[in-house]
Design a protein that fits this description.
The complex is a heterodimer of chains A (361) and B (95). Chain A is mainly alpha-helical and 361 residues long. Chain A has 14 helices and 4 strands. Chain A starts with a helix and ends with a helix. Chain B has a single domain (2-94), classed as Orthogonal Bundle (Arc Repressor Mutant, subunit A), CATH 1.10.10.10. Chain B has 4 helices and 3 strands. In chain B, strands 1-3-2 form a 3-stranded antiparallel β-sheet. The chains are: A mainly alpha (361), B alpha+beta (95).
Chain lengths: 361, 95
């Protein structure tokens, strides 16, 4: 996959879905015609930097795709595709937690006014979330345009955008074939083959900004996370004590992402990538030693009478607090396992290719 | 208007850009391609995929309604042009 393919794939990602394939195909064909034309003129293939110069005339993939969007005035067309994804995700989570708590209320014999209040709070929460996401997206859009991030785009940063994993494997395979079977060579090839990706970084930066702000606000205002159950549940003191650490890690992640966006060639980004790739292990160890009491009961005795004994399972009675604690632990475990599996899977695939090649040879 | 006029003859994106540039009107690709889509969605252009030089290309040409819009635009353009010419010419004679 060369720069042209990477560019078209990147533009495609941000195009309106109904025209996506057609526009991407047209762009690809015309770019290829232009490349062929220049190659005929020069009597040789275009170098990567000549391809990059050609793509620079088209502009950053997000800007290019944004020009095909019309009639979106609330949030500018550049950020809109990411904004919409985040909106659907957050409102989806909010709907799921609120419907679960309303369902629980109905099952436990809640009165009509109580259910009505719960539904009103759900709508309030949804509206607040929508306003919040819109504000963050508008802020991201303003900063992208204020600091001309997309205008300072370098097409070379697109290399291996669409399928970094496959490119990494190919590079690792190539390194082994060319220079022997040294593990360090494979690692180096992997590192080189997955450069900081500016386009992906823009999406990650916006999403990370929204999620970080959402989680930090959720720790301060439990209603954002617990929905209607916030009158009965609060964060446990251990979580409150961890709050400064969570804020610092979130800020570090944001700074890292911001530098990735503004200066994709910064030398320490490789170190930071290794640190973040291994953060999953630290997370798993912390989870193993934690007591898994993330929330505590702050409800009234009447509420306890209704939600104190929700289920009997594995020889014990489970309250709402127990169930929420188990759900949070499960979610954190899944996140931790995935953050460890990613880098391991990538290395395993590269090494298994190497094994297959050795066997073949 | 220039794009509509140029598309009285069939073109695909890249050759259209080249022809316009050859006649002194440079339009960058980031503007031209979305513009073609917009004109097509307004019914002023029609397009079709066809193979040329072993490559599939999307060819655009003026639609019947595009032709009448172009005719009106040209009349308007000529009258504005003539008016500006008179004004500029008048200024020149004063100067």
């Amino acid at each position: 996959m060369d720069l042209i393919d990477s560019y078209v794939q990147s533009v495609r990602l941000f195009l309106p879905s109904e025209q996506r394939d057609d526009i991407a195909r047209e762009l690809q064909e015309d770019l290829r015609s232009q490349v062929e034309d220049q190659q005929t003129e020069l009597g040789r293939s275009l170098t990567a930097s000549e391809q990059a110069a050609l793509l620079r005339q088209y502009g950053h993939p997000m800007l290019m795709a944004a020009r095909y969007r019309r009639g979106r005035n609330l949030i500018g067309p550049v950020i809109f595709p990411i904004y919409w994804q985040v909106m659907k995700l957050i409102l989806g989570i909010l709907t799921a937690t609120n419907l679960a708590s309303i369902g629980l209320l109905v099952v436990r014999g809640g009165s009509l006014p109580e259910v009505g209040n719960a539904v009103t709070r759900f709508l309030d929460n949804g509206l607040e979330a929508a306003v919040f996401i819109t504000l963050v997206a508008a802020l991201c859009e303003w900063s992208l345009s204020r600091f001309k991030v997309l205008e300072r785009w370098d097409p070379a940063s697109m290399q291996s955008f669409a399928r970094p994993l496959r490119t990494a494997e190919r590079a690792a395979h190539h390194a082994v074939r060319e220079a022997g079977r040294t593990d360090s060579l494979v690692r180096r090839a992997l590192d080189n083959a997955v450069p900081p990706l500016q386009v992906r970084s823009v999406s990650e930066f916006v999403m990370l900004s929204v999620f970080t702000a959402w989680s930090v606000l959720g720790l301060t205002f439990p209603t954002l996370i617990f929905a209607n159950a916030a009158s009965m549940l609060d964060w446990a003191p251990a979580v409150d004590r961890m709050f400064p650490v969570i804020v610092v890690v979130a800020i570090l992640a944001l700074v890292d992402q911001y530098v990735r966006l503004m200066r994709p060639a910064a030398p320490w980004l490789r170190v930071s990538r290794i640190v973040w790739a291994n953060a999953g292990w630290v997370f798993i160890v912390l989870l193993a030693v934690a007591d898994h009491r993330w929330v505590m009961w702050i409800g009234t005795p009447e509420q306890w009478a209704r939600y104190g004994e929700l289920a009997v399972f594995a020889g014990r009675t489970w309250s709402l607090v127990d169930i929420v604690n188990v759900v949070i632990t499960a979610i954190l475990m899944i996140v931790a396992v995935f953050s460890v599996i990613g880098p391991c899977w990538r290395l395993r695939r590269a090494f298994s290719r190497r094994g297959a090649h050795t066997a073949h040879a | 208007m220039a794009v509509l006029a140029q598309l009285r003859r069939e073109h695909y994106g890249y050759t259209l850009k080249k022809d316009l540039a050859d006649q002194g009107l440079e339009i960058d690709e980031g503007t031209l391609y979305p513009l073609l889509r917009r004109l097509e969605s307004q019914g002023l252009l029609v397009s079709e995929w066809r193979e040329e030089d072993k490559r599939n290309k999307r060819f655009y040409r003026l639609s019947p309604s595009g032709k009448s819009v172009l005719k009106e635009l040209l009349v308007e353009w000529h009258s504005i042009n003539a008016a500006v010419d008179r004004i500029v010419g008048g200024t020149r004679s004063v100067a």
